[in-house]
Amino acid sequence: MFNQKKYFRQWYKDNREHQKQCTKQWAKDHREEQNKYNSEYYKTDKGKVAAQKMMSKRRGLGFCPINEYFEGYHAHHISQNFVIYIPTEVHQSIPHNIWTGKNMDKINKLAFAYL
Predict the structure, then answer these.
(1) Cβ burial, residue 89 (10 Å; 0-12/13-18/19+)
(2) Helices 16-29 and 31-41: angle between axes, nearest 10 degrees
(3) 58 Cβ partners below 8 Å, 6+ apart?
(4) Residues near 112 by Cβ (< 8 Å), separated by ≥ 6?
(5) Mind spelling out the 3-state secondary structure of the chain?
(6) Are 96 and 103 in contact (CB under 8 A)?
(7) Are 111 and 67 in contact (CB under 8 A)?
(8) In angstroms, how far is the first alpha carbon of the chain from the final one?
(9) Dihedrals φ, ψ of 87, to 5°?
(10) What is the pTM of this model?
(11) How far apart are CA 63 and CA 82, in angstroms?
């Protein structure tokens, strides 16, 4: 019996270089479309949350939200992994740093008020 899944999986393994070339060429040919799509996507709520997750990963932090995202809210890390969404004005009102612990107790008290 022909197993289509196995066949394509093996084909992709055998033709990896061909796939890379095709992908690169497609990206070159459709750059403007992708840029337009990305700019529209990152303006949506779902796109904003995705961008926050990417930035957290880049900084070496986890991203497990405790409450829901709202427009005008920032993601505040209360620890290495957990995030609370708080209003932007509150998040920017106290300078804090998760790595040094500077003012984390003060900002976390304000953040827990929004749960």
Answers:
(1) exposed
(2) 80
(3) none
(4) 78, 84
(5) CCCHHHHHHHHHHHCHHHHHHHHHHHHHHCHHHHHHHHHHHCCCHHHHHHHHHHHHHHCCCCCEECCCCCCCEEEEECCCCEEEEEEHHHHHHCCCCCCCCCCHHHHHHHHHCCC
(6) yes
(7) no
(8) 56
(9) -60, 145
(10) 0.64
(11) 6
- 93-109 in b/e form (b: 16+ CB < 10 A) is eeebeeeeeeebeebbe
How, if at all, do strands 73-77 and 64-65 pair? unpaired
Residues 14-61: pLDDT tens digits? Answer: 999 999 999 999 999 999 999 999 999 999 999 998 999 999 888 889
Site of tokens 């998040």: 91
Structure tokens at 72: 């005008």
Q: Are strands 82-87 and 73-77 parallel, antiparallel or unpaired?
A: antiparallel
Tokens of 42: 């990152």
Q: Hunting for tokens 């996507």 — which residue is that?
A: 41
- Map tokens 């990152």 to a residue: 42
